[in-house]
Amino acid sequence: MHYRPVIWMKGTSMLAEEYKRAFEEATIRITDLASGDGDLPIPHVADWTLADAVIHTGLVFSFVSQSVSQGSPIGDGGVAPWANDRSNRPETKELADWFSTAAHEMIEVIWKLDPDEKVWTSSRDTNKARFWMRRMTQEAVVHRWDIEAATGSQTAIDSTIAVDGINEFYDFFVAERLPAAFAGTGTVHLHATDAPGEWMISRNENGVEVESAHGKGDVAARGLASDLLLFVWNRVDHTTLETFGDTDLLDEHQGAFRI
Q: Which of 33, 41, 93, 144, by CA, is between 20 and 30 Å from 211?
């Protein structure tokens, strides 16, 4: 796969504090909602309830904090399989307290580190603590939106965080997990309207090349950075965005990148 990575790895300690602030805001909101009706369905994720989403997110935090602390993963299958294993679900009715504890443990483990400190990660390309600062913040803000959606009270994701999340989506999940999933022909251009952020996704026989650049694609999709992030994460479809060109490519994008 041809891939031009974004340059987030050159972030500073100030960036780490920005991630921490966004993580705390998202997890405080999730904690508040976790004290409500856990049986409310997540409208855009089949067979997922508010409680399922809270527990999944908390278990991801637990997996990462324990794995980083011991220097190796606590499960053989990886973060998501462990977090989705029903045998690991907490035996508690005090879901808000349980989740708040998991989030605070995450902060204590990750944000006590220097961003460039070497730790265990699930990435092939980096072993720096800043990887988890970013990954866990993005995990929190997207699932905050999911959980809010169950109550009909979802609010947009901060545009700076959303742009960073789109970069991470292509820089980590596509490049490392699904490098060949969108192989083919055609170009997709995404353009954030409320923050500096453009992505040119060019398909080829081996996968895609992603550039942070302006360009004319076979299809273009413009919108708030939050909506673009939710689009790449299959939370909303392209009808949420302003589109020009072959929207079948946007459907194919979502079909290929299901994480």
A: 144
Contact 103, 62 (CB under 8 A): no
Give 50-63 pLDDT, tens digit per residue: 999 999 999 999 99
How does pLDDT run across 26-40, given as a tens digit for each residue? 999 999 999 999 999
pLDDT interval class at 76 (50, 70, 90): confident
String of DSSP letters for 122-168: S-SS--BHHHHHHHHHHHHHHHHHHHHHHHT---PPPHHHHHHHHHH
CA-based radius of gyration for the chain: 18
Q: How far apart are CA 67 and CA 11, in angstroms?
A: 23
User: What tokens does 132 get?
Assistant: 């988890």
- Write down how long the chain is: 259
Name the phi and psi angles at 81, rounded to 5.
Answer: -60, -40
Kindly state the tokens that stand for 124: 């092939």
Q: Is 118 helix (H, G, I), strand (E, B) or coil?
A: strand
Q: What single-letter DSSP state applies at residue 158?
A: P
**Distances from the Cα of 129 to the Cα of 114, 118, 160, angstroms:** 7, 6, 20
